[in-house]
Amino acid sequence: MLTLNRSEITSTLDYSNLNTSIQETFAAIDRFEWQASDELRLMRDNAYYQDGAYTSFEDYCESELTKHGGYRRVKDLFAAKRVVDILPDDLKDKITKPSQTRPLLRLVKTPDKLQQAVAIASQEKPYPTAADFAKAVQQVAPRKTKKSKTQLCNSVAVSSQSHPRYGESGVIEAGAPNAWQQIVTFDDGEKLLINNEDLDAKSVPFPNERTFPPEYSEAIAQIKDQHKLELEQLEQELRIGLQTEATTRAEAQVQEQIQSLQQLFKQQKEQNIQLQQRLDELEGLRQLELENQRLKERIQELEHAVGECPAQEWSNTLTKQATKALNKEVKRSLEKTIDLRSLAVEPPKENATECLRLMGLVLKNLSEAMNNTQALEAAAIILGSSPTPSVIAIRTEQLQLLPQAVSDIRTVLAKPECTWQDYWAVAQEYELIKSDYWVELTSEETELITALQNASIEPDTIQVGSIVAHADPYHTLYVERGEVVQDLGEEVLVAWDCWKEQSKKTDRYFRDELRFWQDENQ
Asked: Looking at 372-376, 445-449, 451-455, which range is the least confident one?
């Protein structure tokens, strides 16, 4: 709804906004009339008017609502509300204001005809007027008007579009109460007091404008002129205010667009940085690919040079001709690896196995640096693994633990009262490289390990009645006591002392999962 204020105008002067404001204003007027009807009914039904010292609801209306039509206006609102309450939900929306229900009042006692009349009027227009409802009522329940003896029988029609009875015809059956109004009786029997300026009656001569005494004519003319000037001033102020409002809105929209563009620019800048980083990465990959291709070509040249030399000129070390063929890039990639030539000049002092292991690591590093498949296969043969980079990498990590494994095992074996459990507690950590560290041990150390293992084997077989514990030192039952109560063939059933108070007292195990109970393990 458009709000007009002389100091501040808050809407744009154009057809769209003005039309929307007009629609909202009329809708608000209709809505407030229905709201007033509900509030008046609440006042009447709950007798709130007594709190204002009124003895009846009619007294309250005549006293407080005189300028709004008094008790007669309230009765009209109640009658209109009664008509709407009778209609079903799909027809209630057809009545938008109380004044439209006047021609429908005589059908309140016949709801079927009332609904039929509203439906007929709604077929022609989505929102019928009071005149449309009157025609529909006449079709549903026609009523003939009786002419009185004093009937003037002057036919007139309502010509003002703002009047609810616009376009309807009626007759003037009584004398005019004044010089500017007429009492008109319509076809539905309703009598209304209508201004002469709202009527079109060629056959009935009466003044279309209200006449005033001569002493009031000059004052009325001055008031009209003043009113006209005020309207022009309001129109000018409205135009200026609307222009200011339009300028303010335009500036706000421009500011929002600037902020959006700044945010978009920021996002594009971040995306450009990411794209530049990606391009740098791609350029680096391209350089690596070129370097890899160049190294491959160099390797092919080296292999070709090696193939042309006689076989007898080659031994376990690199020859002078092959050394000259190595370029600076290959030497730089092998700076952190073990030099095979140093192994040929001075082999490891421990044993030849260590030498082979070191040679396998060298070949593995060489295969990674030069992308040589043959070197990778040679490293796999020496290290004892599959010729794949991942498997060789795992095998390399395992062999790097070999010196530490040999040191830990020898430390345990050097103890005066070493037992099989002491050795096994350490050996389990290096079980995957057992074959490797076994070769590194001396014959006396391997014989000692075998003797400890034989001494740990119990001469008797676990059977029914044997007092046992779990064989795994990391199991919770390793320190608990149990008794074999049943032989199931490959498995036995053990009843544990610590489970006596629990619902589950026994469990099944293979014999190799158990050991004989020893008191010192408690």
From this structure: 372-376
